[in-house]
Amino acid sequence: MPLALPEPVLELPALAQEAGPTWLQPYRRDAQRLITAATADQFAWNRLAELTDTYGARLTGSDNLTRAIVWAADTMRADGFEGVRTERVMGPKWVRGQERLEIIEPPHHVLPLLGLGGSVATRPEGLEADVMVVSSQDELQRRSAEARGRIVLFDVPYTNYGETVVYRAGGARLAAQHGAVGVLLRSVGPMGLRTPHTGGMQYGDDAPKIPAAAISVEDAQRIHRIIDRGRRVRVRLTMEAHFEPDVESANVIGELTGRERPNEIVLVGCHFDSWDAATGASDDAVGCIVTWESLRLMKALGIRPRRTVRLVLFTNEENGLRGGTAYRDAYVKAAGDHVLAIESDSGVFQPARLAFSGSESARRIIADIGTLLAPIDMQYVGPGGGGADIGPIAEAGRVPMMAYSGDSTKYFTIHHTPADTVERIPTEDVSKAAAALAVMTYVVAEMPERLPR
Question: If you average pLDDT over residues 97-111, what whole number do you get?
Fold first, then answer.
């Protein structure tokens, strides 16, 4: 039955019948209904809070993630989705254990830190060494002789995530090549409130595996200033991090079966796992909820498009991408039946944007559909859509991709930190993302012709 809607929370101008391309006329009424339903209350935010409050951090291999997967499948069934299932994925289990960082000289001081995901441990008694600070790979190369026997601190100013994250991913390998015994990383993001950022890293076969951890921007700058004054900084780093054997996890899938072309798929998704520092509200629980809303709103409003809309909550994006590759492997024969793949994995903070990657003819269609989002000021669709989890199936089937991305400064300030909690996400930002994704998903799934490759 159609959903009885309360008065909208947001004042939305009606979609003018003559506005935008005329071919969109058959979709205007349901697009307006989806926007109104998404912004009528804070249902989506409340579900986000339920997920993060109840199940907390969801690192692959944790009991929290296992219980959250069961909850998600049960809740999809309660929402009336079809084909609800969990699909087994074997994932890595990295355990943080206890960790501690303290300045020994000058005055004793304990620093907040987060070991990088995949790091090895120190000896049980810890690792004590002088710190060497560098601001780039080139500086490390120039001063290579000084690194031997020291803990290298990469105090690299944040520019953007893509440029700066290379030091998190490969810093330990670089430092070990020059004889360092450990690595500290200035957290990858804008300055927060003395919050360190964790995240994945990799070792190489050409250097020893050395312990690696992130410290806050403030502490990295403080250590750098002390050393620039000619004082040495000596620290003791203690970490218990280790891997255990791979464990069973799962992708969670739910669908609205298409009324005419059930084998053609519009895929919407996100990753359900998170790092262990907080509850992963922005990365990526909110992405799961707002893509989930595309199906829930259509079901509640009695809208069943021509094509199947499939929601996938991918497991193990953060430290392995096993969920995305497992989905590709399971559906590779049907990869070409995927009409569009949409991912939300960059938060929902306003001002947000939609981005699309595909052929020029498909881009023109998507730009037209974007005009339906004028009531929530989301009508512009830029270039660059994609995502880590949808990437494998999209590559296999040459599938057009779309992404919903929130304001990057707000997002990366709390990204992979203890501050990534639901309280930092405005309710209206969640509702707006849900509305935009629901409309875009609905029209692409309903159009008589599929998006051109």
Answer: 96
